Model the fold of this input.
Amino acid sequence: MTETPPSSEAYEARIAALEAKLAALEASVGDATARVEWDWKGWAERYGLILAWIAIILVLGAFKPVQMFAWNSYASMLGSNAMVVVLTLALIIPLTTGDFDLSVASVMGLSSMLIAVLNVKLGYPIGSAILIALLAGAVVGAVNAFFILYFGVFSLIVTLGTGYFVNGLILWVSNSGTIAGVSMDLVRAVILTRFLGIPVGFYYALILTGVIWYVFQFTALGRRMLFVGRGREVARLSGVNVTRVRAGALIASSVMAAFAGVLYTGMRGVADPSSALAFLLPAFAAAFLGSTAIYPGRFNAPGAFLAVFVLSTGVMGLNFLGVDSFVQNLFYGGGLVVAVAISQLIRGRKPMDG
Amino acid sequence: MKYMTTAAAAALLLGAPAHAGIDEARALIAQYSQLPTFEAPGPAFDAKACMADKKMFVIPLTNANPFNAAISQGFVDAAEIVGFELRDWETQLDPAGWIQGINTAVAEGFDLIDLQGGLPPEFLQPQILEAQAAGVKVTATHNWDATTQGAPDWMDGAANTDYVTVGQIIAAWAIVQTEGKVNALVLGPDEITPTAPLRDSILGYLAEHCPDCTTKYINVPVNDWATQGQPAVQNALLADPSINYVLPVYDSMSQFIVPAIQIAGSSAKIVSYNGTPFVLDMMRDGDIVEMNVGESLGWVGMAGTDANMRLLCGLDPVTKLNTPAFIFTDENVASAGVPATFNDGYGDVHIEGFKALWGID
Done:
């Protein structure tokens, strides 16, 4: 795809026109939701998830007040979900530009394992191991982008395949084994150091959430990504380099997934070949649930951040109540479907065509 | 004063069985802290002669698991020692691969198929019956418990593991370390065959030998260890900070339990089973993994081969692996290797023991 770069004035004018269209679109979505008699609109729609969170805490707290109303419970929960937040943020970047990245959990596992192999088996300093793991993430993202954009293959299929390929790489580099003994410096930098009682890993996730929120909301890049996701052709005709934006989103996604792997290894001091894959569904559930809050109808960082902890609070409460673990599957799986359904209602039930 | 005397007498009376329980637990720990000795599973026989025209086919649960790979290596080593053909089939935890293995073994005229290391024969009953109809014997090694479970009638044999003793050792360790004041969180994936005997043995031993001990059991399926195991342990520790032992029935769960203990700020210790190398490394390098019950997997493979050869040679069946459990702690964990392996630290009496049993110089 070749695109003549527009002059900057014309370009800004087109972007402004697109923003106006977007505002009109969002207004029309509001009309659509009104047509289905959606009565909790406006701020209730934006902050409904926070209300739901408070409700979950209060309801579960009625049964288990000592645990549910203890700061320590929340400090622990916030600290142990840092990598889920980062993985969810990794997902929402390509989701915003209209691509699914199913390889994020595999990249998280690859990064986690590379750090262990390089640091424990090959004696690399932990800093270098982390850097190489992040670069490996960038490479996977570039491969995803190449197949999706050059060949025009649907992102779901490409990333399903690359994810599976990466799983094989993990088994290969690890010799199918779990590796312990990763530098305690990393463990200290993720969970053993605390601020306000919360392991510092949480704050990395918080900062990253802030950065992505800023980029999405206040930069031209963020707006361009949104345009690309809302309508590739319109964005292209308006002078946005769609290919570059989508490629950048896919690479950023994989690098962030690799960072989630850094946190995952730092949390345990151990890397294993397969467990990271289990985080794909919780991350998707949080990404979609997050898209119903704060900026409803858009994948957004604060919403995703909030969603991870709403879901985790539910799981924590279920643990305190002593319910069987299968209930958590119902909770996450059901949560994903309900979240998607709600976000569809907000979108005015337009088909999701990616 | 009178009240105090009565209270002291009551304490003595109540304390008596508790002390008996602790003494018994201490004896069990002492027994399994000794290096394993070889006890012949049956009478000696001329393995070379009887296996001369026979060949054996081993299908592991998955070659991607070092646990299974180590058992398979034991089979391969035994076959080399005796001098018969043995094929170790490559699988990746996929039923299609297992079925293909059985079909290959039947087509190529193998005499026996061994499903080793947790491959559930129940999943493959039609294929197993088909293989048996073609004259191939089908057995399983290291799947069922030797006393509370057993091979179903349609299997030709099985060399089973003494999971009950393993569970007792884990429980006994916690009793001894706390002087009978265990508050244990026990974890297991209920869908795995050996979980039930291990779980019941740990909980049963604690209930029987430790009147002041309390336990809580949580079932976490294997696929959910990462996503649910850690929060489950973390939240259990937050809900009850007096928990002093976390006892996962399989030690691979430790990687998710250690961060849960650290984040919850608990001082609980982990005691578990399997002797998995990375967990022994965690024991050596940290303070949270306190004890691990292991078994030499090379020995398991050789003992499985022994049981299969006896079946093929028409000898009395062996249904229990003679691989002893062995306790690893900080004191002896270095003997398992740095980094640890599945076979080091147990001694190698089994190699000479089996050679003598099979009539090989």
Notes: Chain A touches chain B at residues 64, 67, 70, 72-73, 76-77, 79-80, 120, 171, 175-181, 191-192, 199, 267-270, 272-273, 275-276, 278-279, 282, 312, 315-316, 319-320, 324-326, 328-329, 332 (CB under 8 Å).
